[in-house]
Amino acid sequence: MLKVGVLGAGHLGKIHLRLLNQSEKYQLIGFYDADSINGKKVADEFGYQYFENINTLIDSVDVVDIVTPTLSHFDCAKKAIEKGRHVFIEKPITNTLKEALKIQELAKQYQVKGQVGHVERFNPAFSAVKEQIKNPMFIETHRLAEFNPRGTDVPVVLDLMIHDIDAILSVVDSEVKQINASGVSVISRSPDIANARIEFKNGCVANLTASRISLKNMRKSRFFQKDAYISVDFLEKKVEVVKMKDAPEVAGDFDMILQNAEGEKKQIYFENPDIEQNNAILDELETFADAISENQEPVVTLQHGTQALKVALEIINSFENQSVQ
């Protein structure tokens, strides 16, 4: 078992603590929180060991799980990596691209592994169809959330949209060509609603919408590719797969046949992939343990986290450039 310590005991940090404490692949040593009052409260309530000194905790573990506010990700990761500890970092990887690149450099220098907490990669609905998403040419995502003051210290792009950015980058095998975006601040000082259009060099176009002031929650992505339409509901953990193939010469009574202007006939059929229910956060933490133990590449590498951050920051820069014009 790998000895693990958690940095940060906020809402998500407490979830990580609970799951790591249950995991058979980790031994939870304890946690650190910069707010000592909160730290002692969590320790009293749940029985986890609270470390008042961050370095003492890092010295006591093999893996450091960083679930602190984004602004402190870099400093926490740097401390851990320079002590030779593997790091799991919640998304976004860091606050700036420069910091993210430095984390990659340090991890290579000290020969440690790192994984970024893009949890939707482990969503059972996405996992069920990811291998079927091949060369998508149009992607549309909607990630809407009811207002919650937690997370409003960063733009909605880094809070919500970055989940979809990472998922899209994981299935589109092409570099980004151009980004156009707009964002609106309604309640927060940073944008609460954003829309981005990402054009890739291979011709794929992704249209992303994110809002944290909606009246209902929604997390849906739609992938359109040659002869297939794939819809993923990340919230309800459901998928819809619609495919087309050449129509048979003699169609059955219940076959769905379409004919285009050139007279070509296609048959529409539906697939229902099996969805294995899971705890996505536990899965991402335990696959990281496997990557360390088996000396393999993590599912979501530091490089993946950096690429998602780079696109997210370009979207935010597009807001700013738009407001200047």
What does this structure look like?
This protein has 325 residues and is α/β, with parallel strands linked by helices. It folds into 2 domains: 111 residues, 3-Layer(aba) Sandwich (Rossmann fold), CATH 3.40.50; 166 residues, Dihydrodipicolinate Reductase, domain 2 (2-Layer Sandwich). The chain contains 9 helices and 14 strands. Strands 7-8-9-6-10-11-12-14-13 form a 9-stranded mixed beta sheet. The protein has a 5-stranded parallel beta sheet with strand order 2-1-3-4-5, sandwiched between helices. Strand 1, helix 1 and strand 2 form a beta-alpha-beta unit. The longest helix is centred in the last third of the chain and has 23 residues. The protein is globular, with a radius of gyration of 22 Å. GO terms for molecular function: nucleotide binding. InterPro entries: Gfo/Idh/MocA-like_OxRdtase_N, Gfo/Idh/MocA_Oxidoreductases, GFO_IDH_MocA-like_dom, NAD(P)-bd_dom_sf. This is Gfo/Idh/MocA family oxidoreductase.
Number of domains: 2
Characterize the main sheet: 9 strands, mixed
- Stretches with pLDDT under 50, minimum 5 residues: none
Number of DSSP helical runs: 9
Distance from first to last alpha carbon: 56 Å
Q: H/E element string?
A: EHEHHEHEHEHEHEEEEEEEEHH
User: How large is the radius of gyration?
Assistant: 22 Å
Largest sheet, spatial ordering of strands:
7-8-9-6-10-11-12-14-13
Which architecture of the largest domain per CATH?
2-Layer Sandwich
CATH topology of the largest domain: Dihydrodipicolinate Reductase, domain 2
- Beta-strand fraction estimate: 25-35%
Helix content: 25-40%
Instruction: Spell out the CATH superfamily of the largest domain.
Output: Dihydrodipicolinate Reductase, domain 2
Which structural class fits the helix and strand makeup?
alpha/beta
Mean pLDDT: 93
